[in-house]
Amino acid sequence: MKAVGLVVEYNPFHNGHRYHLQQAQEITGADVTVAVMSGNFTQRGEPTIVDKWSRAAAAVANGVDLVVELPLFYAVQPAHRFAAGALRLLSSLGVQSIVFGAEHPQWNFQRLVKAEELFNQESFNKYNATYATQFNQQLKAQTGVTLVDPNDILAFAYTKATMQNDYPFELIPIQRQGSNYHDNTITGKIASASAIRDALVANNDLYRQAVPQTMADSLAQVKAVPSWQSLYPLLRNQLIQAPISYLQSTYLMAEGLEYRMKEAAQRSLDFAAFMKYTKTKRYTYAHLLRVSLYTLLQVSQKEVQMHTQSPYLHVLAFNQRGREYLHQVKKQVEIPLITKVDQGLRDSLLNLDYRAGKLYQSFTSIEQDLKHPPVIIN
Amino acid sequence: MKAVGLVVEYNPFHNGHRYHLQQAQEITGADVTVAVMSGNFTQRGEPTIVDKWSRAAAAVANGVDLVVELPLFYAVQPAHRFAAGALRLLSSLGVQSIVFGAEHPQWNFQRLVKAEELFNQESFNKYNATYATQFNQQLKAQTGVTLVDPNDILAFAYTKATMQNDYPFELIPIQRQGSNYHDNTITGKIASASAIRDALVANNDLYRQAVPQTMADSLAQVKAVPSWQSLYPLLRNQLIQAPISYLQSTYLMAEGLEYRMKEAAQRSLDFAAFMKYTKTKRYTYAHLLRVSLYTLLQVSQKEVQMHTQSPYLHVLAFNQRGREYLHQVKKQVEIPLITKVDQGLRDSLLNLDYRAGKLYQSFTSIEQDLKHPPVIIN
Questions:
Q1: Given this structure, which CATH class describes domain A3-104+151-224+309-376?
Q2: What does the entry list as the binding residues for ATP (chains A, B) (predicted)?
C-alpha cells in the first residue's frame, strides 16, 4: 500500500481540511492517508477546542485512514522543530509523499533552505527583535524572499527537515484554499479554523456550515471553550511559588525571562494583564504561550532532550484501511507503536503527553490517555 | 505597661472571643492586650473565612490593643510547634502573662509535661496510628490522663514551651465558655467558630447574632467561602506535574506520602475524592491538609528550618494603647518589628507569608502583604 502523509492540527477538523485531504489523495494516487496530528495543545501552546480523540475521530469519519499523535515535545514548538518531529514520525510510518498547504506553493523551497547556509549566525543576538524577524532580514538579503505566512514557514521547515535527514519523501506543496488563516468571518462552507473557534466562543452557530457533521456534534458539546484565561490561576501560582532556580530549569526559559514572568504573575490576576506585562519585542506571543505551557507542565530542558531522542507512535484513530496499513508497516517501524497507554508507559515514554492530558482534563473531566483505546471507525 | 498575651485564630472573631478577652483583662489587671494571630491559613492548614486584616481589625475594634501575625511556618503546624512559635513572639513582645482557654483548666499541665520525659520514644514508630494516639497511650500509662480536647492539647503545648525556654510568663488557663468547638448549632450569642462558618456557608444569617458588628460586616462581604475545594485544581496540577524528587523535598512530606498523593491527584477531580484516597490511619486529616498547603506553596524542609530560626513581628492592627505599647517595647525587641512589607522583605524574611498571601488573593483579589499598612483604630 502506498501512503500519503499529512501534518495537521485539525483544531477543529473543517471542510477545508476535507478538501485538502481529497486533493492529497487525487494528486498522489495513494491507497492510504496517514495524518500526524497535534494532541491537546497546539503548536502555539494553546489548548485545543476539543480533545484529540474527538478531532481524530472526526478526521477518520471524513476520510483520513490513520491518525497518530504528534507528541507534545514535538508539537508545541516553533515551526522547524514541529516540522522535524512530524516528519520523523511520517518517515517511521513509511509514507511516500507528504502534501501540505502553502501560501506560495510555486516557490523553490529547496533554494531557500540552501540560502540559509550562508547566513551570518552571529547576527542573531539582537535582543530587541524576534528570531523570525532576524531570520527574514538575512533571507531577504540572500534571496529577495521573506517567509511571513505561517504555511510558507512550515513548507520551508518540511523541506529543510527532508533535506537534512535525506528522507525519501516526495514533498508536494499545494495552494491553500478559501479563507486566509487570519480571516475571521464565516461566509461559506470553507472557513479558517480560527474563524470557526471565534464563532464557537461567540455562540454563533454559523460555524456549523464550515465543519462536517461529526465535528459539529463534538463542538456542540463544548461548554466552556478551553483557554489560557482559565489555565492562568495554575500558571500564576506556579510562577509565584516555585523558586527562581526551579523556573530556570524550564524548557525554553532563558535570558532572565523567569524573573519577568514571576513579577508579571505577582502583579496580574488575569492572563491578559500577565501577557501584557511579559511581552517584549524579543519574543513572539506564541513563544510566550509555549514557555507558559512548559512552566505549567514543569518540563525541564533535560526532559525534552530525553524525549526528543525517544519518539514513538501513539495511534489515536483508524479505519479498516488504516488497520491494514498498520499491519503492513508494524514489522519495519523502528520506534514503539502504541495503541494503549498502560501504567508503565504513563510513567516513562508517554509521561509528558500523559501530564498534558491531565492538565487538559481540567476542561473536560475526561481521562485522556491511561487505558484509552484508539477510536476505530469502520 | 503590663501586657497580657493571647494566642488566637479569630476565624472569625466572635462573641466568645470577646468574653475571653474581657476575662483575660480582669484576671490579670493588664494595661494592654496583645494577640498573636494566625494569618490567612489556620493551624489545620485551611484558608481562613476572611483575610487576616479584616480579622485583626475586628479584634482591635472589640478591645484587643495590638495584633501581630503568627507567620505561616509557625501557624500551620501541629499544636506543639504552633504553641512554641506563638510563645516565641509573645516573649519578644515582653508580655507578663498568657491567658488561654482549656477544656480542663484544673489540670496540672506541668505534671503532664514532666511525665512526657519518661516516654519510650522508640515506640512512636507504629505506622497504623497517628502520633497523637501513640502519645496518649503513653500519657495515660504514666498519668491516667489523655489529651483529647483541642484546647487541652494547646494548654499542654504552651506549658511545655514555657518550661523548655524558661519564659517568665504566668500561664493562666481558663474554662472555655459556651458551645463546644465541635458543636455546630447556633442557639445564643455564643457559638463556636466552626458553627459560625457552617452557617455562613449555608447562607444562614443566624451567624450574625454570634459575632460583633464589625465582623458581621466583613462576613457579609464574603461571596464564595475560601475552601480547599476551590484550591484543589492548583494542588492537583502541582502533584501531577512536579517530579517525585521535587515533591519529596516538601516540608512534612515523608514515608512515601508523595507517591500516594501523586496517585490520588491523578485519580481525583475533586478534593473530597483526593482526601478519601490519601487518608490512612497514620495521618490525621489536619496533617494531610498541612502537607497539601506546603505542597501548594512549594515549601521545602530547608526553607522552614531557615525561617523558623528567623522570626519576626509583623504588626497587623493596633489602637492607641497598642501604639504606646509598641513604642515602649520596640527598643528591647530583639527580632525585626515590621509594620510595612517592602520589596526587600517580600523577597527575603517575609517571602513565605507573601506567597501564602498571593495564594489567598485568589479568593479575594486583594493584595495581602506588599505595602499593606497596619490597620489603626482609634
A1: alpha beta
A2: 7-20, 101, 151, 176
Contact A296, A231 (CB under 8 A): yes
Domain residue ranges of chain B, discontinuous segments joined by +: 3-104+151-225+309-376, 109-148, 228-304
Residue B10: all three cell numbers together: 479569630
Q: How far apart are CA A219 and CA A376, in angstroms?
A: 20
What gap in Å lies between CA A353 and CA A335, rounded to an integer? 17
Tell me how far the alpha carbon of residue B288 is from its chain's centroid: 15
Helix (H), strand (E) at residue B164: helix B150-165
Q: Could you tell me if A75 and A42 are in contact, meaning their C-beta atoms sit under 8 angstroms apart?
A: yes
Average of pLDDT values for B58-78?
98
Residues on A contacting B at a C-beta cutoff of 8 Å: 233-234, 236-238, 240-243, 246, 266, 269, 296-298, 355, 358-359, 361-362, 365
Instruction: Answer yes or no: are the C-beta atoms of A12 and A218 closer than 8 Å.
Output: yes
At B9-55, the pLDDT tens digits run 999 999 999 999 999 999 999 999 999 999 999 999 999 999 999 99
Percent above pLDDT 90 for chain A: 87
Is the Cβ pair A362, B233 closer than 8 Å? yes
Determine the pLDDT at residue A122: 73
Q: How many residues can be counted in chain B?
A: 378
Answer whether residue B160 shows pLDDT above 80: yes
Whether A358 and B240 lie within 8 Å, measured CB to CB? yes
Query: The cell 507503536 sits on which residue?
Result: A337
Indicate the helix (H) or strand (E) that contains A376: strand A375-376
**What is the helix (H) or strand (E) element at residue A5, kind and residue range?**
strand A3-8
Helical packing angle, A257-267 and A228-241, nearest 10°: 110
Q: What angle do CA B301, B307, B310 make, to 5 degrees?
A: 150
From the list B243, B266, B359, which residue is nearest A358 (CB)?
B266
| CA neighbours closer than 13 Å in the CB half-sphere of residue A72 | 28
Cβ atoms of A64 and A6 closer than 8 Å: yes
The pLDDT tens digits of the residues spanning A165-214 come to 999 999 999 997 544 555 678 888 999 999 999 999 999 999 999 999 99
CA atoms of A362 and A358, how far apart (whole Å): 7
In CATH, B3-104+151-225+309-376 is 3.40.50.620: yes
The three-point CA angle B267-B271-B274 to 5° equals 40
Which residue in A88, A84, A32 sits closest to A334, CA to CA?
A: A88
Q: What is the number of residues in chain A? A: 378
